[in-house]
Amino acid sequence: MASSAAIPSSRVSALVSRLGRDPILWISVILLVTIIGSAFLADWLAPYNPIQTSLRARSKPPSLQFLLGTDEQGRDILSRILFGLRLTLMTGLLGLLSGLAVGIPTGMLAAYFPRLDMALMRLMDVILSFPAILFGLAIAGAVGPGLTGIVISLAVATIAPAARITRSAALTVVNLEFVVGARMVGLTNAQILWRYVLPNCTPALIVYSTLRFGQLILLGASLSFLGLGIAPPTPELGVMVSQGRGLLLTAPHIAIIPCTVILLLVLSFNIVGDALRDALDPQLRV
Amino acid sequence: MLELKGAVKRYSGGGSIFKKRWLTALDHLSLTVRRGEFFSLVGESGCGKSTLARIVAGLENLDDGELHFDGRRVPDISIFKDRQMRRRVQMIFQDPYSSLNPRMRVGDILREPLRSFGWGDAPAIEKRVVELAEIIRFPLSTLERYPHQFSGGQRQRIAIARAIAATPEVLICDEPVSALDVSIKGQIINLLIDIQEQLGVTILFISHDLSLVSKISDRVGVMYLGRIVEIGDAASVFSDPRHPYTRVLLDAIPTVNRDGRRQGAPLAGEVPSPFAIPTACRFRDRCSLAFDKCAIEEPGLDAVASTRAHYAACHLRDRAQPRKAAADPPRIPGVEIFYTNTSEHQPSNLAKETA
Lengths: 286, 355
Fold this sequence. Notes:
The structure holds two protein chains of two kinds.
Chain A: H1 2-6, H2 9-21, H3 23-40, H4 42-45, H5 77-112, H6 114-128, H7 132-143, H8 147-174, H9 177-184, H10 189-197, H11 202-225, H12 237-244, H13 253-280
Helix pairs in contact in A: 2-13, 3-5, 3-13, 5-6, 5-8, 5-11, 6-8, 7-8, 8-11, 9-10, 11-12, 11-13, 12-13
Chain B: E1 2-15, E2 20-33, E3 38-42, H1 49-56, E4 64-69, E5 72-74, H2 83-86, E6 89-92, H3 106-116, H4 122-135, H5 152-164, E7 170-174, H6 182-199, E8 202-207, H7 210-216, E9 219-224, E10 227-233, H8 234-239, H9 244-251, H10 292-296, E11 302-303, E12 310-312, H11 337-340, H12 348-354
Parallel strand pairs in B: 3-8, 3-9, 6-7, 7-8
Antiparallel strand pairs in B: 1-2, 1-4, 4-5, 9-10, 10-12, 11-12
Helix pairs in contact in B: 3-4, 3-5, 5-6
């Protein structure tokens, strides 16, 4: 990857040395790798069929037979978590990427063409003024509940903050002399934005995307919890929490286990994102 | 080669939306730079030097007046969208730390103008990159590195190589050595002089360093508040300044004199605000020679009597300006460096590093 190669090696080594000093960061990295890895290998790792019900094994607590217990319809929770994670991560990633695909160009255009700045950023403010959950409700109402609606909601929730982050990073870049130098060399605006401005915004964007990914997972799970996303019996973390909600007193593990997985996943993304921010983009530290 | 006629450039500087305040960066400035010469422009900070550079480089439009390039009028900068036109004027910037894209290898930085200006096919471009590396004395292995791996002087050499890559006709240098150490300055200046001799490129050199300018220029223009106040052959302007402002600038050069005292009084007052340029003679507030006429009639930039190529915008231009140091040109420690290390240039540490 050309852009990561250009990150001064001192930053990379700072990240590595920080990894050695910070046990929580270590744990987060290991957790992330484990969670993402096992989600990808769900087909091989899952001990049971995630949608196979069993009337005799309903709402069983964790045991040797069912490591994380079963839900009210006797489905293995571990298997459902593994497949649910895969779906959650995929929707989060799709939402993030499509949001960035719109937000990054918007932010760069706003920074590079001062005339567009006002209009574009006020438009972003309008989008930002809707709570993401509300937007999700509206989109689910328009396209119907399902994967598409969730991805669109996550993308919309990403566009405005991504545009802002990109704009602020690009604003410092476009005023540097090498951008004027690129104009002197006769490059077109598109070439300058793509080859000069964007690569110099990547540290901020990498940091932002990592932090944002955790938030999107939470948002996606929330939408599913509200019944706007993936419909049962397809395993999805938010759906599982929603199904376990009614049994919190009698079989608390049904809701608590997916909740814990979401918590660990989001927390890990935040901790790793913070570490990346400190290493790659110290100016962003608040 | 380059000609400005009555050039005006204003920037809006706040004020209310009903009555904007305008900052006059260039005020009916006229200037001619001849083909192949080393023309220097000097003046204090904020006098419009860099604005002039940006105008001439085709980065900004004039508000009024005309820019002529090689005898042809430049109606507005959109003609620089034509890359063959753009190729002819190139620029070197002041800060070598921000003028190179930190995400591009040096080789790619040099290939960029060659590709953009259609230098030729890939082998031709590579051949030219090797030539450029030779001109700036960079071992070929260093072309794979990124700009942050080089010092300021080395970066400025990369910037020079990029600017001359596609053989421009005019090279605008906006304070190219102000950010560098004295010893590195010498290397960069010598490199520019060599390049000019070899390519015959016209150089517009912008600086506030008069001692440096006096050593290297063919002609020099002195700018004050958006206008040229004195212009002529460097030898003539520096040995016999006819505008009081030039004289004060020359007197302000730190010198090492036998008695250790400054000659002449330092310049009184501050540069007037470019939001409100004084009427008539713009220098009269600070001029020790000002008299009634200076407040009434603006002096034109007219030829000094008994000279052929020396113009000054002062009513007293034909009266020799008293300047004790005139007989003994200013001696500045460090300036000799420009001459002492011409031969060895700078193959120094870069070669060692890679060896």
